[in-house]
């Protein structure tokens, strides 16, 4: 059975890269929800709170990494992080657990280190989700 990535990003809360140099929709740093994923041209359509859509390549949109990935990154890089960064990352994990994704995304933008630990491009999130599905599928076969 073939894995279908089409719906893995739909419904995901995302933020347009705040550092995007060219944004025809003028939504840099704004949060929205993925309503469509185009497999042919790896891009997403994002619905914003004002009801308007924007169409973006998957490497120009950030989403929260899975909680377990954020936690593992915190563990693996504990000594390289400052106390303040650790506290913010732990707060992000707490917000994700509470399903407060928008505040978690904004907290993740505190600095580049925290951003790297907590957010990923939609393209990378899709890869993570596909890998997770493959692992689950292989476990079921055993």
Description:
The chain is an alpha+beta fold. The protein has a single domain, classed as Roll (SH3 type barrels), CATH 2.30.30. The protein has helices at 67-76, 83-97, 101-108, 112-118, 122-141; strands spanning 13-16, 31-38, 43-48, 53-57, 61-64, 119-121. The chain has a six-stranded antiparallel sheet with strand order 4-3-2-1-5-6. A hairpin with a 4-residue loop joins strand 2 and strand 3 (43-48). 25% of the residues are buried. The mean pLDDT is 91.
Summarize the structure.
It is built from five helices and six strands. By secondary structure, it is of the alpha+beta class.
Can you give the helix content as a percent range? Answer: 40-55%
Q: From the coordinates shown, what is the CATH architecture?
A: Roll
Describe the largest sheet.
Answer: 6 strands, antiparallel
Number of helices: 5
Order of helices and strands: EEEEEHHHHEH
Distance between the termini: 16 Å
Q: What form results from the Cα inertia axes? A: globular
Protein name: DUF4314 domain-containing protein
Q: Layout of helices and strands, plus pairs?
A:
Elements: E1 13-16, E2 31-38, E3 43-48, E4 53-57, E5 61-64, H1 67-76, H2 83-97, H3 101-108, H4 112-118, E6 119-121, H5 122-141
Antiparallel strand pairs: 1-2, 1-5, 2-3, 3-4, 5-6
Helix pairs in contact: 1-2, 2-3, 2-4
List keywords for this structure.
142 residues, 21% strand, 5 helices, 6 strands, DUF4314 domain-containing protein, SH3 type barrels, alpha+beta, globular, six-stranded antiparallel β-sheet
């Amino acid at each position: 059975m073939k894995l279908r990535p089409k719906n893995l990003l739909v419904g995901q809360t995302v933020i347009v890269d705040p550092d995007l140099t060219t944004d025809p929709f003028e939504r840099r740093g704004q949060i929205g929800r993925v309503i469509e994923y185009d497999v042919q041209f790896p891009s997403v359509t994002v619905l914003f709170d004002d009801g308007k859509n924007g169409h973006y390549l998957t490497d120009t949109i950030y989403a929260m990494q899975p909680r377990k990935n954020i936690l593992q990154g915190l563990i693996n890089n504990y000594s390289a992080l400052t106390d303040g960064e650790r506290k913010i990352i732990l707060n992000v994990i707490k917000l994700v657990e509470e399903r407060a994704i928008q505040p978690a995304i904004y907290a993740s933008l505190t600095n580049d280190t925290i951003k790297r630990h907590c957010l990923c491009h939609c393209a990378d999130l899709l890869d993570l989700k596909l890998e997770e599905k493959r692992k689950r599928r292989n476990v079921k076969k055993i």
